[in-house]
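Design request, C-alpha cells follow.
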C-alpha cells in the first residue's frame, strides 16, 4: 500500500512540477513586460502550489484573445459616428497644433470619435453629484443606462433603486450593468426587485464555469450614466453612502464630469458594447443616438474606453501623450500610484524639463499593500522635481489630470498598472480651457488640505518602512 501511495505521490508531484514549468515557459513566450514576467516566475518558483492557483485566477493575458469581439464593437460603434473627414478635421485652424497629436492618438488607438460643442460641468462633492444625477434620471423620457463598479445596498443605493423602479414602471427602458466582484454586496432581493419592475440588470463577468474563473482578474471599473442619449456622466464615483456620510477613511472626495450634447454618443457607445457582452444583444437603434443641437460652447471631447477588449493600452497612451505635451504644468489627482514605466518616465522627463508637475495622493488608503507599493515610487518622483502632496482631509478617490489650462482628463482610471492593463476603464479627454481652469482650481484648493512631501524628509523615514515598500513593489506588476 505504501508503494502504491508513493507512486501516486511521485506521479502527482512530477505532473505538478511539469505544469508549473509549462506555465513559466508560456509566460516567457508571451513576451510581456520583463518585470511582470519575473514577478510571476518568482511567485511560481517560491510558492508553486499557491502561485499556480493565483496565476490561473489573475495572471493570464487575454488581451490577444478578445473578451469582446471586434465585430460587435464595430457594429455598435457605427451609429455613434457621423459623416466625418478626420484628415480635414486635423487641418482645421481652430484645433491648436499642440492638441493634434493627442486627438490623433485617441482616434487611432481606440476609435475615440472627437465630438465638438458639448456642455460640460465638473462635480466634486458627493451631495451635488447625486443630486444632479438623480434629477437627470427623474426627467428621463426614453431610456436610462447605468454602469458602475460598485452599487451598494445602502441609503444611496436604495434611493437609486426606487427611482429606477419608478421610471421602469412608467415606460422608460432601464438597463444596468454592475461588476460582479465590485457589486458583490448587492443582494439578490434588490436585484430581483429591479427585474420584477422591468429593469434590465446584468452582472459583468460573473464567476461561473461557463465564463471561466481565469477571467476574474479582468474587472469592469467603468462608471457610466446615459439619460435619453443626451446627458451623460463618468468619473470616479460609485453608488455608495461613503460619498455622503464617509466611512473609516472619512468622506470620499471624487471628481465626476457631466456632459450634455454630442459627446454623450461616446459614452453610449461604450455602454452598449458592454451591454452586448453581458446580454449578447447588439443595440444600434437610432433612438439611442439622437441628433442633438451643439452648444455654443466650443470644445472637443473624446470618450476613451480601455481594457482587454482593446488592441492598445489606450488610456495609458493618452495619459503619456497628455503629460509629454505639457509646457507649463501637470496636476494629477489619483488615489493609487503604481505607474507603468512609460508613465513614470513621462512624469520625470517633463519635471526635469522645468515643468511644474504635481501629484496628489491620499494620506490614508483603503488598500495597505498598494499604498506601500505606491510609496516606493515617490523618491524617484521627488528626485526629478515632481512635487508630491498627501491629502489629509478624508480620502481622495478622484482620478483627474489637467495640463496647461488647455486639456484634461477625468474618468475611472487610476494611475496604476491594474487600471492601465487589466480593468475595463473609461476616461473623457477634454480640450476646453474652462474645464481645465476649473480642475486646476479644484486641485489648488485641495492642496490646502495636504502636506507636501520633501525629499530630505522622505529619505529619512524608517529603514523598515523603506524595506516594506520595496518588497511590496516587487509584486506591483501583479496588482
Amino acid at each position: 500500500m505504501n508503494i502504491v501511495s508513493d507512486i501516486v505521490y511521485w506521479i502527482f508531484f512530477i505532473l505538478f512540477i511539469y505544469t508549473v514549468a509549462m506555465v513559466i515557459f508560456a509566460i516567457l513566450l508571451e513576451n510581456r513586460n520583463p518585470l511582470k514576467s519575473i514577478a510571476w516566475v518568482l511567485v511560481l518558483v517560491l510558492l508553486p502550489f499557491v502561485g499556480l492557483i493565483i496565476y490561473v485566477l489573475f495572471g493570464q493575458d487575454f488581451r490577444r484573445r478578445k473578451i469582446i469581439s471586434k465585430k460587435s464593437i464595430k457594429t455598435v460603434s457605427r451609429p455613434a459616428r457621423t459623416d466625418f473627414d478626420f484628415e480635414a478635421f486635423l487641418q482645421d485652424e481652430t484645433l491648436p497644433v499642440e492638441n493634434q497629436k493627442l486627438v490623433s492618438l485617441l482616434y487611432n488607438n481606440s476609435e475615440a470619435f472627437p465630438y465638438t460643442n458639448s456642455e460640460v460641468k465638473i462635480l466634486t462633492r458627493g451631495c451635488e453629484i447625486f443630486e444632479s444625477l438623480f434629477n437627470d434620471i427623474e426627467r428621463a423620457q426614453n431610456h436610462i443606462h447605468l454602469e458602475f463598479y460598485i452599487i451598494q445596498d445602502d441609503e444611496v443605493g436604495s434611493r437609486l433603486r426606487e427611482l429606477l423602479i419608478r421610471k421602469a414602471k412608467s415606460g422608460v427602458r432601464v438597463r444596468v450593468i454592475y461588476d460582479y466582484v465590485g457589486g458583490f454586496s448587492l443582494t439578490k432581493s434588490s436585484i430581483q426587485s429591479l427585474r420584477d419592475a422591468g429593469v434590465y440588470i446584468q452582472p459583468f463577468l460573473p464567476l461561473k464555469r461557463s465564463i471561466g474563473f481565469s477571467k476574474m482578474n479582468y474587472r469592469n471599473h467603468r462608471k457610466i450614466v446615459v439619460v435619453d442619449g443626451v446627458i451623460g456622466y463618468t468619473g470616479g464615483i460609485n453608488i455608495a453612502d461613503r460619498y455622503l456620510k464617509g466611512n473609516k477613511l472619512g468622506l470620499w472626495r471624487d471628481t465626476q464630469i457631466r456632459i450634455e450634447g454630442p459627446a454623450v454618443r461616446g459614452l453610449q457607445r461604450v455602454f452598449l458594447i458592454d451591454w452586448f457582452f453581458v446580454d449578447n444583444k447588439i443595440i444600434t437603434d437610432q433612438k439611442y443616438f439622437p441628433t442633438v443641437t451643439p452648444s455654443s460652447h466650443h470644445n472637443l471631447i473624446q470618450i476613451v474606453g480601455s481594457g482587454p477588449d482593446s488592441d492598445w493600452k489606450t488610456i495609458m497612451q493618452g495619459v503619456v501623450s497628455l503629460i509629454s505635451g505639457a509646457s507649463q504644468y501637470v496636476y494629477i489627482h489619483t488615489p493609487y500610484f503604481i505607474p507603468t514605466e512609460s508613465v513614470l518616465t513621462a512624469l520625470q522627463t517633463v519635471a526635469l524639463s522645468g515643468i511644474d508637475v504635481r501629484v496628489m495622493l491620499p494620506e490614508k488608503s483603503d488598500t495597505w499593500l498598494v499604498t506601500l507599493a505606491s510609496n516606493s515610487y515617490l523618491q524617484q518622483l521627488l528626485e526629478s522635481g515632481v512635487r508630491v502632496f498627501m491629502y489629509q482631509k478624508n480620502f481622495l478617490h478622484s482620478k483627474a489630470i489637467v495640463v496647461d489650462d488647455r486639456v484634461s482628463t477625468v474618468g475611472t482610471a487610476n494611475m496604476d498598472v491594474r487600471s492601465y492593463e487589466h480593468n475595463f476603464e473609461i476616461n473623457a479627454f477634454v480640450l476646453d480651457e474652462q474645464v481645465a481652469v476649473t480642475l486646476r482650481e479644484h486641485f489648488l484648493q485641495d492642496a490646502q488640505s495636504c502636506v507636501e512631501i520633501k525629499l530630505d524628509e522622505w529619505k529619512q523615514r524608517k529603514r523598515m518602512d523603506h524595506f516594506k515598500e520595496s518588497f511590496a513593489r516587487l509584486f506591483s506588476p501583479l496588482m
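Comment from the thread starter after seeing the answer: thanks! The chain is about 45% helix and 20% strand.
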